[in-house]
Amino acid sequence: MQTRVHAAFDPLILKRIDKEVAKTDTSRAQWLSDTISAYLGLIDASPSGDIAQEMRDLRTTNETLWRENKKLKGIADEAAASVPRLQSEIAVLKDQYAATFKELETLRNDITLKDVNFTHAKDTITQKDQEIAFLQAHISQLTQSISQFALKPGDEEIKKKGWWRFWK
Asked: What is the pLDDT of residues 90-119, one digit of tens each?
């Protein structure tokens, strides 16, 4: 069974109620009943039963979150503003990388060429060392051969023996 309750309302509050009723497409009595039921549901759901305190706590939390959100939006705006600058820096770094990479490739090719030239020079020196060693051995062999043959005697020896007898 439903009970009717009659209440007097301030004209400003009644205007607000009528605005809300117009939005919902229900009667004023039905809207008041639904609103009071929702309010009582909030009281039942509240652990302390103090809706006003919980609303103050929620408002404080909401304000804190709003400040944090504003701060984060500021940070996001700063980050968004720095994106073009960073993109230009990236473009410059990419160009520097490309130039450095080309230079590195040139240096690698130079090093490879120098290695080939060094190896060739080393082989040439080794060959020349072998030729010198061969010639030294050959000269040593010829020196031994020559020393085994009789050489022309010195002037004193010729005077002493006479040149005609020396070769006998």
From this structure: 999 999 999 999 999 999 999 999 999 999
What value does the mean pLDDT take over residues 44-52? 69
Tokens of 77: 């705006």
CB 43 within 8 Å of CB 51: yes
Handedness of CA 110, 112, 114, 116 (dihedral sign): negative
Question: 86 is written with which tokens?
Answer: 């960073």
Chain centroid, CA 104 distance in Å: 20
> E strand or H helix at 91, and its extent?
helix 51-148
**Tokens 């304000």, residue?**
63
Average pLDDT over residues 33-53: 77
Per-residue confidence at 149, pLDDT binned at 50, 70, 90?
A: low
Number of CB atoms found within 10 A of residue 37's CB: 10
The structure tokens listed for 8 are 């007097």
Q: What is the largest CA-CA distance in the chain?
A: 172
Is the Cβ–Cβ distance between 31 and 21 less than 8 Å? yes
pTM of the model: 0.38
Q: How many CA atoms lie within 13 A of 83 on its CB side?
A: 6
